Amino acid sequence: MSGVMRATSAMATAVKTPTTGRDAGRRAGRRGTAQRCGAVAKPSGPPENLERLRITTPWDDAKAVLKSEFGATDAELKHAESLSDEDLSKAYYMMQLCRDFENECNQAYMAGKIRGFMHLDNGQESIPALLADAIRQDDLKHSYYRDHCHALACGVDSGAVMAELFGKDGGTCRGTGGSMHIYDMDTNFQGGWALVGEQLPYAVGAARSIVLDKMLGREDAHDRITVVFVGEGGAQNGRMAECLNAAAKENLPILFLVIDNGRAINTFTKDVAANQEVFNQGKHYGVPGVLVDGQNVQDVLRVGRAAINHVRTKGPAILQVHTFRFNGHSPADPEHERNRKDEKKWARAECDPIKIFESSADAARVDLKNETAKAKLEVQRALDFANNSPPPPPGLAAELEYPDPSGKVDYSAREPAEGLASATAVTEKIVPAETLKALKARIEALRAMCVDPKGISIGDAVNLAILEEMLRDPTCLAHAEDLQAGSSYNIPANTQQAFGTLRAADEIIDEGHFMGKALGEAMNGYRPIVELMNANFGIYGMAELSSAGNTYATTGGQFAMPLTVIGAGGTAPNQSLGAEHSQPFHAYIMGIPGLKICSASKPQEAYGLAKSMIRDNGPGVLLLPVKMMKSRGPVTPDSFLPLHKSTVHHLASDESVKNNKAVTIVTYLHGVKETEEAIAELNGQGIDADFIELTCMKPVDWKTIQTSLQRTHKLVILDESTRTGGVGATVSAIVSENLFDELDAPVVRLCMEDAPVPYASEMEKTVVKRAADLVTAVTYMVNRTA
């Protein structure tokens, strides 16, 4: 058994069985076992009640693991082992910089200059030392909420980081992100993500972007890597297994850097995890892992260099760094959990990586006083910059809602980022000629259907839009379940056959996973299209969709988010799908800032909105009616529709308006078909309607509704979401707040009841509204106001 593996056994031995001060015999026996296996303490010994000890991972033992698990050569290990005076000085400086920076952050927090949540990194400084040593500026970095020191070590300006914490305009994100959301485009520092584990699929997407860059022939992609940080508690999240699978399946250049401080926030990780050996999680997928003592910066540098070199030259890897966090989870943490204060006191005295280095023989090779002074000077500069930086303008939040402000972009004229001619040349280079010929023939066949009297289906219309955009722009990607077979409605059909598995990826059955990968790709110059087999399955990806909506604003406008999500969903009358397939996903996501949400009930709208949304630089969701996907209609090829305007399908006759027998009907998805049926029946009674489809659900196009109400003065909403918190509730509130004087009667909402949608038709009729309900409501309103 190697030394590194023995250290792991020691860690497990030292933490599995809780002990008390009274259980001296068992505690002494366990301590002896831990020391024999490699986990050592100072001769005086730690307090009797501690449940977690320091481990050791001697370099000679680590080399054996790196050879056997990573296939490292003697030459590679020799390079990793060699630490020059400059290397050690740089590492010591970075540790001191991080320690001083975090200490000043703590003081500023207590003084009220930093607000909200803040998470300090004291005790874990060997990790930023490794980053500064072996991670390059062109590498992609995805951190989590404890991100200050990671940013500093990756080259982000300390003044900009401190100013962000102070909420100033000179901050990395102009004060929009704060402590948990540090981003910097120049150094490829891509978060700062606050939800535990959410950064994992984003980083996998970032790693895919590097592989995609290589495929597209971009010279700067050669040996770049992605590094993603996660705690050992966060690594228990199912996202970790999914991402290890994805990294192995495509041999992605990604390092999973696991920061193991023994705490899942405050909970002892061992209390909730059956196995804390995160570095072994990859074995099932063929991803090697290694454990290192994070209190010994020299070991961290050597083992970390070897792991990073493996990622640069071979493929994914896990590096687990065993550390101690000297502070609570945040400054507000009372630290009441068992033994925490004793552990912290002991660790500060005995497990401080800075003190341990200063007591090592290598310390003589570093001018400790000079490096310490340099670090303090830099932190003071950061404080001065933050204090002197002005606050952001109050209107900045509104300015950063969307990368492409509504109505300001001509999507038909937007070329690929590298230019249309260059994009075309790349496509011709990477797609075989015969494949390209077959693809163009398929596109022409679909375009012929657009003008055929029989028309084209909604599914095929969206498929045509996707194929055209992926052919035109090699940065367009597709993600879907069952993609090879065209998913359920042909939306992603032929994408993989034409563009290969990298650009058109068949996915595991977890929408959050591939939405997350798409987010990481979108941050790195790609235009991913995510197809949901059923829109309701997007519930699995709510966290990722929320972050997609937030990213442009939270990064201070640095990172656009050209991500398109397309799915068939909604609730048609008598669709007999039961509650889980009949949820109003569109209503669930209406509250996510930064999203543009559209719907389309006809092929023309589906095609034109899909084309525009794919070219938009922000995140968008296009919802389609699940029970109407095969309905046909005409489409104008190469047409683009605005993402901020509703569609007026029918205007009430002047006669009906004059006779006060006209109403405004607002609906979407399956409600469009129901409304068409209802209007035909109402016309027989001399009643007519302005018929508006919410092809843009967010932002709400209330101006189009206003124009109609100035004619009809009556509004009925046929709403495919629940009475509480639904789309109709939002529209009704906006009308009441802005257009109250135009109303001759209260707004009528015909919406799904708050009860789950049942399967049996007899019950379902009481929950889901349809044409008959609309006829009754409109007739009542007209008669009431006559």
Provide key terms for this protein:
5-stranded parallel β-sheet; Rossmann fold; 23 strands; disordered N terminus; 3 domains; 30 helices; 786 residues; 7-stranded mixed β-sheet; alpha/beta
What percent strand? 5-15%
Category by helix and strand content = alpha/beta
Query: Class of the largest domain in CATH?
Result: Alpha Beta
How many beta-strand segments? 23
Mean pLDDT: 92
Instruction: Specify the CATH homologous superfamily of the largest domain.
Output: Thiamin diphosphate (ThDP)-binding fold, Pyr/PP domains
Question: How helical, in percent, are the residues?
Answer: 40-55%
Tell me the distance between the termini: 90 Å
Low-confidence stretches: 1-43
Backbone CA Rg: 30 Å
The CATH architecture of the largest domain is: 3-Layer(aba) Sandwich
Number of domains: 3
Query: In what order do the strands lie side by side in the largest sheet?
Result: 12-11-13-14-16-15-21
Determine the CATH topology of the largest domain. Rossmann fold
The number of helical runs is 30
Largest sheet: 7 strands, mixed
Keywords: Oxidoreductase, Thiamine pyrophosphate
Protein name: Transketolase-like pyrimidine-binding domain-containing protein
Cofactor: thiamine diphosphate
Region (Disordered): 1-50, 383-405
Q: Can you describe what's shown?
A:
This protein is of the alpha/beta class and 786 residues long. The chain has 3 domains: 59-389, Thiamin diphosphate (ThDP)-binding fold, Pyr/PP domains (Rossmann fold); 411-633, Thiamin diphosphate (ThDP)-binding fold, Pyr/PP domains (Rossmann fold); 647-783, Rossmann fold, CATH 3.40.50.920. It contains 30 helices and 23 strands. The longest helix has 26 residues, at 85-110. The protein starts with a helix and ends with a helix.
